[in-house]
User: What shape does this take?
Amino acid sequence: MLAVEVRDLAKTFRSGWFPRRLTRALRGVSLSIPRGVIFGLLGPNGAGKTTLLSILATLLLPDAGEAKVLGHDVVREARAIRPRLNMASGNSSFIWSLRAPEILAFYGRLYGLHGKALARKVDELVALCELEEHRKVPYQELSTGLKQRLALAKSLVNDPELLFLDEPTLGLDPDISVRMRAQIAGLRRERGTTILLTTHYMREAEELCDEIAFIKNGEIPARGTADALKRQIGIGDVIALRLDPASGEGLTELPGVLRCVFQDGRVELTVDSADKRLPEILHWLHEQGIVVRDVDVHEPDLEEVFVELAK
Amino acid sequence: MGRVYAFAKRNVLMAVRNVFFVFELAFWPSVGVLSIGLMTRFLELTPEMTAFLLVGTMALSTIQVCQLDVSYALLFDVWSKSVKHQFLAPMEIRHMAFGSWLVGIGRGLTVFGLQAFLSWWAFDFDFFEPGVLALGAFLLGCFLTSAIVGLLVCALVLLFGTRAEVSAWATVNLVMVFCGIYYPVSILPPPVAAIAAAFPLTYFLDAFRSHYGFASEFSYALVTGFLLSALYVALAHWALAAAVTRCRRTGLLLKLSE
Assistant: This one.
């Protein structure tokens, strides 16, 4: 069962009158996201992440293509979708003079809660997002971290089946980011919420997401698990060896070796898979009578994949 | 009704926490009624002429305050950059408009009460003289006008962004010029008078003033006023709904939240 199904989605923003400026934010994006996963959407600024999220959240109408959320068309059946999804973003803002429980109660009522159920939900979310001590503080006086926790709390007011998180840890201190990430992971684990997350932080994506799609210039050039993406990009693992004697002639001829660099008495081999190639390389070196003094294996992280894809 | 209550309660909370609202509710209406009342004294106007002017003053203040509440339902979200959360939720424009309008009626009645008291205390003018029914019909007409103006202001803000927020304060004053705030519409040039005849408030003012000895310029003024109001409320609601759809298409809904 799919939570999100997108086919050939396109969106162009028009601005100015003379000259008329056109910005093609999405150029035929296709994507499917199964239910119950945390799906990451990565990409450089202006790649189209927020545009895609906004269309799926029914805040923006697409120019072309089709998007279904929880089985409903986002254009024709937006009313059926809205009660079942919610959204929080890193730059969320609320009415300045209202306090956290009042903001949560306002949105709770918009999602059909009332009476004791509403009061219970507000208390639950205030506790969940650790806003207890700040119940009486107006929104404008909350710190950035507290504002973002409140945004997350607001996004849970209707127990959404599908949650859009647009840069949820943007600008947060590391310790608060860690707690926020734990809360997000808990949502999927404990409530089975499907989460579509955009982020600039590769570590966040690697830690949280079951699957990731890269979006660039309004297109999705790559998607998969973090490991699959690394393989797909082909930037490879690096095996650094200190050899005695310091010679590795013939190493480049071995299967799976993509690149070989000699530097400061060390040889750095870029291979398709360190797990597979390291035993073969060590065996070959042994046969050649070369002693291996030191081995270091480095797997590329998602950041390197991001840099590679963003080129 | 829960969604209507959500908007009503939010408007109340914002009203009680904002000193600006006190000015809207007490300061400007008091200044308005006192300055116009004193002017009638200086010009030595008859009680009928005084009534004519004070009715206009009261209508302006009441409509202004009530329509601001309808406009604030959107404007406060625009100012605090939280518009998208509202339109992400499963609510309809009618919830937003009706909830905020109810609070506007409450604030409008407060303004009316204050001005009625000042008019009676300072200038011996009795707003209740035409009777409760006539006064009720007039106030309802004023509140319907407020709903129309408030909805149109919201539509303008969603069409043109924050550049249009000035319309929240300007529109009512413009409407009042056409509707004969301090004069009968018969003195307007014929093309302008024809425009005035398209405004429901023109009929409500005409009907209420007729209780103070002024011959009515329209037959079935109240009926015409209410029919026009119903038509314009429907049109304004449609215009706002169309503006929201356009806003979703152009991306302004997101820009207003950044």
In short: Residues 51 and 126 of chain B are 8 Å apart (CA to CA).
